[in-house]
């Protein structure tokens, strides 16, 4: 079975108004006669859907002005203008003019209407003069006939003050009166003048009237509640109007008033019969006298023993006006399909239940509710209101019983929702944004709107310029709501410090660069770096370059700093590499720098060495920043071994040849007597 459950948020005056309406409909109407014509029975407690009017004196009785005889209505009123004392909604109290024998509400109801004022003092106060009465009043109800309103039943009770003919003689045309007209849309009596028209004038001989209070000048005659039913099946989809009129006497001293009620219903027989039972109860509409066939029974309700399913029973309905209608029914068991809907007030944990049970071939007479929260069951209320101890899921059972005692039960789980909205707080940097996600509901609204890209939906982007608390309200499918806040903290941008072991680097040298101020570091460009991430990197530059580091923290805040690295050219050092003879000294001369350090510990650009073997000397030259290193090689040549022939004697004036060997160049000394100082 498909069910539509109405579930919505009901708060404040809306909830109170609906609760009051349920009170009227569910409590009052459960005790009164229900109707398919809206408020025809006055059970709303007002004149809604009714029209009316009043009549004023107009000279209908010679020199004695009056608005009653015949009744003349010259002031037509809508429902809001129908006010006491001439139009009154009555409650079940006794009418004092009838010795309290007449109750002012139709049997079984909670409200009816009184047409006309019930005492002359009203007229004397509101229309002073020699003729204070002579007023008339009217009520009119119009509806369209449907299959659910083919039976129109009206009830009336009338009170007429009859003048004492020996004190104040009145003709019949001058006495108080009451009139009913049932008209079709063309103004014709429905179904004819006999059935659709009723007129009674104050008189002691009126059938069905009783005697009320009396004085020397008058006696009250009243007719207790009388019910009349009209068969409207021939007027389906047509407009029908029923009009009630009452008038005082033409001479202005005697009153007339009436109580009225009405309802619409299908023109059908209700068969109260459960599957498996051996009796069926048949009920005809109220407001008639009855003749059932077969059997010849004359009561409104009859009981058939051992019924045969499918058997046909007919009933002739005769109204008090003598009109006859015939209806019939086929005996079928009562089938009950219980069902209900509900509305939830989330703030109060209160549920308004609506019975939507379908009863075929019978009438529901009782409803028993088990609300599923261990509270006592509720019986006799069709549309109850129940307050639960808190949110949760409750299994609610409804048992519906018919007039014949048939019953069926349905259990439906209902949910009293608890809406918990979650939206985390966060920290962002200025000029940044954060995405806030709410959960726990179906729809969401956010405030304030400052800094938000949207104000509805589960996800928003917030970019406030100052720290801001956002409020989000979530609603579920029932309209229930929950609220929470999300705080967006604006953190300052990061302050980044960057340093290097040296921001001037000599060729073929490196420098270490470090940054502090965050948790994540990204360096650019990555040229000459050993890494592009981390708080410390090493650069081995081949040219001057500037590095930038971007730093972020866990909140996404960022900052950056830069540092230039300059590449310095190394000096170019030159040095001589002399050759010496063993035993000699060598001068080593370096150039191209400002200071020099030699591997033998000497300093200065020129040093003297006297190696005995070939030797290498390293010199490091510096220009104050960078250095260069080179070497000097000192070659040590061994001394030659010279051999010379040495004649021991030579003749005077003679000569000898001296020959030297073992060398390349020779120098002789002394030169005295030598042919040459050089040569071997």
At a glance:
The chain is mainly beta.
Highlighted features:
680 residues, 43% strand, 3 helices, single chain
Q: What features would you describe in this structure?
A:
The protein is rod-shaped, with a radius of gyration of 62 Å. The strands form 14 sheets. It has a 6-stranded antiparallel β-sheet with strand order 2-1-5-11-7-8. 5% of the residues lie in helices and 43% in strands. Strand 9 (210-214) and strand 10 form a beta hairpin. The chain has 680 residues and is mainly beta. It is built from 3 helices and 49 strands.
Proportion in helices: under 10%
End-to-end Cα distance = 142 Å
Label the overall shape: rod-shaped
The pLDDT mean sits at 85
Unreliable parts: 1-32, 58-66, 120-132
Rounded Rg: 62 Å
Spell out the blueprint of helices and strands.
Blueprint (H helix, E strand, L loop, with lengths): L11 H20 L18 E6 L19 E3 L9 E4 L21 E4 L4 H7 L9 E9 L6 E13 L13 E7 L9 H4 E5 L8 E5 L3 E14 L7 E9 L8 E10 L4 E3 L6 E5 L5 E5 L7 E5 L6 E7 L5 E7 L4 E3 L2 E6 L4 E6 L2 E3 L3 E7 L7 E2 L5 E3 L4 E11 L4 E10 L9 E4 L4 E4 L5 E5 L11 E4 L5 E8 L5 E11 L5 E4 L3 E3 L4 E6 L3 E5 L11 E4 L5 E8 L5 E11 L5 E2 L3 E3 L4 E6 L3 E4 L7 E4 L5 E8 L4 E11 L5 E2 L15 E2 L19
Parallel strand pairs: 28-33, 35-40, 42-47
Antiparallel strand pairs: 1-2, 1-5, 3-4, 4-12, 5-11, 6-10, 6-12, 7-8, 7-11, 9-10, 13-14, 14-16, 15-17, 17-18, 19-22, 20-21, 21-25, 23-24, 23-26, 26-27, 29-31, 30-32, 32-33, 34-36, 36-38, 37-39, 39-40, 41-43, 43-45, 44-46, 46-47, 48-49
